[in-house]
Each structure stands twice: as structure tokens, then as C-alpha cells.
Write a structure and sequence with these properties.
six-stranded mixed sheet; 23 strands; 31 helices; Hypothetical protein af1432; about 725 residues; Beta Polymerase, domain 2; alpha+beta; Ubiquitin-like (UB roll); disordered C terminus; single chain
């Protein structure tokens, strides 16, 4: 594109743009990119000119258009920040720096570089929203010319566009940009499906125009009779939207009926509601598809009335009713509202505080990203926040809370307050107790029940929908696991020293060991031992490289006295640790008397397994996490075991089996027998103290007439289990 061609394209905007400044910026960009060509063979400056034209079509100011023309000079040429500052001033220089990717910094992975580029983009947007608008224009033109790139790079850019840029455009209310980005990504990621769908839609163009006319003509006449001035238009939904409907509903195009949207633009909000009433008198509405986004705008500032009606010939039509100003916001989002630092010469703007208020979700995103250190976690949360659609629910006092679609009471609790989420013990939706994983719907009234003793569960992460809730829960779980690992690791090291009658090392010695084992502190070393990341043998070898050094450090008389006062532990001993952070695994239900092995878990203590448990095979290559167990019977503790019974059915059998169990002084938690054609099968869940007690119960059951087999079942359901141990 030549300078003359570019300036001619900008003539419709000449009255509001500083054309002399724009002309100078074109020459600057052309000079900086001299000799550079795109893969299409065009001079590189043609891309810069197209970006600037897109920005001008969005009715943005001269500074933004100029920044669009020179947006790549810092990244792709020898131009410096100082050069830009001298040529166009600090405003343009800062915008271009915000658009420029992070370069010349070593990263450990592609994910880390990608995450830091997005992080820089988010922080830059917070300073100046025009940076985002330039990024959109840049990406839009790159997608339009993606055909010239190698296939692998083309797919990577198209996927990034679908996963990040299109959702970001949606969240900032820029529907036109989002639709084109999604369709272009669709074209390159599912090219066959795109081509076939585009042909089918094109073939039905005349039929589509006829159907739109069949609705718009009678609606226009009815509105005119009521004295409502309105513009009525129709359009098919964009290709990727139609394709998604086909995939989600698992139907061909011919069976997707809500493909047409009729748009009614009125002069006032009052006329919008009046037009809605008239629409519903002409055609029967589908009540569950009615949405009032004027009363409750979306977080991206979108406002409109949506109704779906059964129109002519039984076709479903979505009718969107809004004012002209709402329509501008719906099409170009923040670009329609933006005015920079109180500038008064641009039309259709509003001040920064209004933008901040309407885009509060973006401020929340900036808050959570500050604590993100893992690039994969950052990208995961970013995609969650960008993709979500919205629902509106109420507190018991009637306050409105916006949440993503499919949000749960846990998401609601954390949205109200972090402490409410951390202590959430239950929830009522519309006055009824519901599970914490229940999906909320628009219009629900939600009440959160709390308890000071309640703490988050790691399982909550699997069903929460907001990045805020997910981040807080994960952080809490990490802190708890670190605390538990710290205590366990400290105890393991101290007990190992006592077992070998060696005195405690001083803090400086432990810090030296920690540093040798690549741990930043003594606490980190203890936690690593407790989590199984560092073995006791590694710590021991660093403390005492030779046996002679260990012998030179005998434990003191006081330390030996403490050990003696503690006495011999009863019950479970884990390499000398008694009853500390122990979990009895549900996969094999170990009992005192079973041959058992301990496995150091990450942050949840020691998990006890039977030595024949199949799950121990999965940790065969992690010997440092295995610990020896001495398990003695403890009369004050009992364990739940499920027994499977089979035999020949007869009258009174259940009572006889239950009686036999009871005569062994055993409590039955639950029991059932089911008659079958060939006899009966059943289960009993009993409380026993050890393996000998269990064997006596099994023997007593086998002696009952009609019982042929009694076997111990390995796994208890959560309902049967109730709790893992009974004290």
C-alpha cells in the first residue's frame, strides 16, 4: 500500500484526525521498515497501514492511529524508544512499548514466555486501553493474511486467536472483532468444516433474506403505528457460532433453526420495552429464552433485550432490541466509550472512571495475576476468566451478584467474601439445602451456611468456575500441605536422630544441609522431607558423611531422658513416630495385624497400605517415600470393614447372620441381603479392632447355616465409610 492509497482510505475520518501527524507517522514507519517484506511479498509498511486503518474505522483518536502505524518499529527494526519519543512524544512511545512483546529475556519454556507476554499485555492495558485496541487491530490483519504462513505456525496462531484474543474481544464488548477472529480461526483450524458450512450458508442467502423480510416488514409497520421510530435489520449468526451449535446439539445445519437474528434499534430505553411488548403481540415468545440485559448489563457493558419468538412458517427468530448507543457499544465495546484522560474533542466517549467501573472484572483479573508464579496456572486462570458467560444471582438481602455460567455456591461464597468461602459448610438455593457442587441459574437466591471449624476441600477445585475461588482454594491447600509436610519432616528427622542416639544439629548446620540439597531454608528442608521430595538418607549423609562423625555427636543425657519419659509408643509407629498425620488408605483397608507399608504423601502425612495393595506398585520406583511400619492393636480404635456374604437363602437367615456377628462383640454399621435365583448375596459393614477380631467375625458368619462364603471386600463407598476411623 502506497502513502497516497493509505491517506485516501482515511479521507472519511479526515475531519477528526490530525492528517499531517498521520502522514508523518506513515513516512516514519515506511523508513523504519525499509527493505522488509511480508511473506505475501508486500512491503511491511502495508501491514502497519492496515492496522492504522482498522483503528480509524473504530473511530479512535489520532494518537492511537499514529501508534498503530509505528506499532512494530521497536520489535522489528533498529528504532529505539528515544527515537519514538523525539518523533511523536511520550504518549505514542509508551503505547508502542506496551504493544511490544517481551524480548531478550531468557525463559525456561515456551509457556513461560507466552504467559509473561500476556501478563505484560494485561498490565499495559491497565495503564492505557489503546494498547489492547492496537493488539486487536494487529491480530485481525494478521489473521486476514494468515494464508501465507507455514501450516504449523498458521495453526498455532489461529489456536491462540481462538483461545485468547477472541474471548478477550468478547470480554471487552467488541463483538465485531470477536466474530471475525473466531471465523478466521475456524477457517484455519477446521478448514473442511468451514468451507462446507460457508457454501451451505451462501446457498441459502435468498431464503434467508425472504425470512428476514417476513418478520421485519410486519414488525416495522406495527412499531410505526405505535409511534416508535426504529431501524430494523437482520443478519445470520456468524459461521463459528453456527458450527458450535451444530457440535453442541449434535445436529446438521438443516436442523438448527435459530440461525437468524433481527435487530431493532430505537431512540430510547422506554421505546425498547414498548417494542418488546409489540413483538410479543405479533408472535408467541419462547419464555425461557428471554433476557433483559438493559436492566442487568453484562460485565463487558453489553445492553439489549433478547427474545426468541415463533415467527412465520414456524421458524425461530431471535429479536434483539436496543438503542443506537447500546448498539455502538455492542459492536465495538470499549472503543465506543473510550476517551483518553478527559479529552473533550472525541465523540462518543466517557471518562476513565466509568470504564473502570464497567470493567471491574478486568481489575479482579489484574489482582489475581499478581500472585501467579506458575506459567501454566496463569494461562489456565486467564482462559477461565476470558471464556466465561454470565449468570445473575441474588443474596438473601436482594443484592445482585454476577457469576460465570455453571458457577456453584462455592463460587458465590468466595465472591461475597474470602472468609465466607473458606468457612462455607453448606448452601441454600431458593430456600432449599443443595450440594455445594450444584450449578446455579440466573435468578436464584443463594444463602451460604458457614462454620468456624469448616475448611476448604481440595475436591472443590474440581467444580468451582471462578478463577478467584480456584486460586484461593489452591493456595490454601498448598499452605496446609506445606504446614503438614513441615511438621512431619521435622518429626521424621528428629526421630531418626534419636533412633541413632545422635544429638540434634544446630540451625546453622541444618541450613547448610538445606542449601546443599537445593532448599532455600530449614523449613523448606523439613517440608521436602515430609513431602517425600528429599529422603532421610540424603539428609543423614549430608549431616554425617562418615559413621565416625555421627559417633562423635552422641545425644545428650537430657535428650535420652526425654525419650525415656515418652515411653514405648502404643498403636502405630512409623520409623519411631507414633500416631502422627496418618491416613488409612481406602484402596486396601489395612487393619492392625495386616502386613503394612507406609507411603509419605505430599502434604497429607503418611498413607498406610497393605503390602499386597496394587497401588504400592505405582510407587515402586520411589523407595525414598516408603517408610517401615510397626502396628500394634489399640483397643480404643476400631476400623470399618466391608464383608461380602453368599449362600443358600432361607427364612430368618439375616437375623441369624446378624446374631452371629453380635455374639463376637462386634458392632454392625450396615447390612443387607438380596435373594437371587441361585441363592443370596449380601454385604455387612462391621467395626473391628484388628485382623484377629476380623477373622473371628468371618469364622462366626461362616458357621451360620446356609452361608457358603464370606470375603473381605477391599473398598468402602463414601456412604458406607462415613468416617475413615472410629475412635
Amino acid at each position: 500500500m502506497t502513502r497516497k492509497q493509505f491517506l485516501k482510505q482515511l479521507e472519511p475520518h479526515a475531519e477528526r484526525l490530525d492528517m499531517a501527524l498521520v502522514d508523518r507517522a506513515f513516512e516514519f514507519s515506511e523508513r523504519a521498515h525499509l527493505g522488509q517484506k511480508r511473506l505475501s511479498g508486500e512491503p511491511y509498511v502495508s501491514h502497519c497501514a492496515e492496522v492504522a486503518r482498522i483503528l480509524a474505522d473504530l473511530h479512535l483518536d489520532s494518537t492511537t492511529v499514529v501508534a498503530g502505524l509505528v506499532h512494530d518499529v521497536l520489535e522489528d527494526t533498529g528504532t529505539t524508544q528515544r527515537d519514538l519519543l523525539q518523533a511523536f512524544g511520550p504518549e505514542v512511545a509508551e503505547i508502542v512499548d506496551g504493544v511490544t512483546k517481551i524480548g531478550h529475556i531468557p525463559f525456561r519454556s515456551v509457556e513461560e514466555r507466552q504467559a509473561e507476554n500476556y501478563r505484560k499485555l494485561l498490565l499495559s492495558i491497565a495503564k492505557d486501553l489503546r494498547i489492547l485496541l492496537i493488539k486487536f487491530a494487529d491480530r485481525l490483519h494478521n489473521m486476514r493474511t494468515l494464508d501465507y504462513l507455514p501450516d504449523e505456525k498458521r495453526r498455532r496462531i489461529a489456536l491462540e486467536t481462538r483461545e485468547i484474543y477472541a474471548p478477550l474481544a468478547h470480554r471487552f464488548g467488541m463483538a465485531m472483532v470477536r466474530w471475525e477472529l473466531e471465523d478466521l480461526a475456524f477457517k484455519f483450524l477446521e478448514s473442511d468444516a468451514y468451507g462446507e458450512l460457508a457454501k451451505k450458508i451462501a446457498r441459502k442467502r435468498k431464503e434467508r433474506e425472504r425470512l428476514i423480510h417476513s418478520v421485519s416488514e410486519p414488525l416495522g409497520e406495527a412499531l410505526a403505528e405505535a409511534g416508535i421510530r426504529a431501524e430494523i435489520g437482520g443478519r445470520p449468526k456468524h459461521l463459528y457460532s453456527i458450527y458450535r451449535k451444530m457440535i453442541v446439539r449434535d445436529k446438521p445445519l438443516e436442523e438448527i433453526y435459530d440461525l437468524l437474528a433481527i435487530r431493532v434499534l430505537t431512540e430510547s430505553v422506554r421505546d425498547c420495552y414498548h417494542a418488546l411488548g409489540i413483538t410479543h403481540t405479533l408472535w408467541t415468545p419462547l419464555h425461557e429464552r428471554f433476557k433483559d440485559y438493559i436492566a442487568t448489563p453484562k460485565s463487558n457493558m453489553y445492553q439489549s433485550l433478547h427474545t426468541t419468538v415463533f415467527g412465520p412458517e414456524g421458524h425461530l427468530f431471535e429479536i434483539q432490541i436496543r438503542t443506537g448507543e447500546m448498539h455502538r457499544t455492542a459492536e465495538i465495546g470499549v472503543a465506543a466509550h473510550w476517551r483518553y484522560k478527559g479529552s473533550s474533542n472525541e465523540k462518543g466517549g466517557s471518562n476513565g472512571s466509568e470504564i473502570d467501573e464497567k470493567l471491574s472484572w478486568f481489575r479482579q483479573m489484574l489482582d489475581w495475576q499478581k500472585d501467579m508464579t506458575d506459567p501454566r496456572e496463569f494461562l489456565e486462570y486467564l482462559k477461565i476468566d476470558l471464556f466465561k458467560d454470565e449468570i445473575f444471582v441474588f443474596t438473601p438481602k436482594g443484592d445482585l451478584i454476577q457469576l460465570p455460567s455453571s458457577a456453584t455456591p462455592i463460587d458465590f461464597a468466595f465472591m461475597v467474601h474470602t472468609q465466607v468461602g473458606l468457612h462455607c459448610s453448606g448452601a441454600k438455593v431458593n430456600g432449599r439445602i443443595v450440594p455445594l457442587h450444584k450449578e446455579l441459574r440466573s435468578g436464584d437466591t443463594v444463602q451460604i451456611l458457614t462454620s468456624p471449624t469448616q475448611r476448604p476441600s481440595r475436591d472443590w477445585v474440581n467444580f468451582v468456575r471462578t478463577s478467584k475461588a480456584r486460586q484461593i482454594i489452591r493456595r490454601w491447600v498448598r499452605e496446609e500441605e506445606f504446614k503438614n509436610s513441615l511438621a512431619l519432616g521435622k518429626e521424621l528427622i528428629e526421630k531418626e536422630l534419636r533412633r541413632n542416639r545422635v544429638g540434634k544439629p544446630d540451625p546453622e548446620e541444618l541450613l547448610a544441609v538445606a542449601q546443599k540439597l537445593k532448599q532455600p531454608s530449614v523449613d523448606a528442608l523439613h517440608a521436602a522431607v515430609g513431602a517425600g521430595d528429599v529422603s532421610l538418607s540424603q539428609v543423614w549423609n549430608e549431616l554425617f558423611p562418615t559413621e565416625e562423625e555421627a559417633r562423635r555427636r552422641p545425644s545428650s543425657a537430657f535428650e535420652r531422658l526425654v525419650d525415656k519419659v515418652k515411653g514405648a509408643p502404643s498403636g502405630l509407629k512409623i520409623q519411631g513416630i507414633d500416631n502422627m498425620m496418618v491416613r488409612y488408605s481406602q484402596c486396601c483397608q489395612p487393619l492392625p495385624g495386616d502386613p503394612v507399608m507406609g507411603y509419605v504423601t505430599r502434604g497429607r502425612g503418611v498413607s498406610i497400605h497393605r503390602t499386597d495393595c496394587p497401588n504400592l506398585l505405582s510407587i515402586a520406583d520411589l523407595p525414598e517415600r516408603r517408610v517401615d511400619i510397626i502396628w500394634e492393636s489399640d483397643k480404643d480404635r476400631s476400623f470399618l470393614v466391608r464383608l461380602v456374604v453368599a449362600g443358600t437363602d432361607r427364612r430368618g437367615l439375616f437375623a441369624d447372620v446378624a446374631g452371629a456377628v453380635s455374639r463376637t462383640s462386634t458392632n454392625i454399621k450396615s447390612g443387607e441381603l438380596t435373594a437371587l435365583d441361585h441363592g443370596f448375596e449380601g454385604t455387612f459393614v462391621v467395626e473391628v479392632s484388628d485382623l484377629g477380631h476380623l477373622n473371628r467375625v468371618i469364622a462366626a458368619m461362616r458357621r451360620v447355616e446356609g452361608v457358603v462364603a464370606v470375603e473381605r471386600k477391599e473398598y468402602l463407598s463414601s456412604n458406607e465409610r462415613g468416617i475413615e476411623t472410629v475412635a
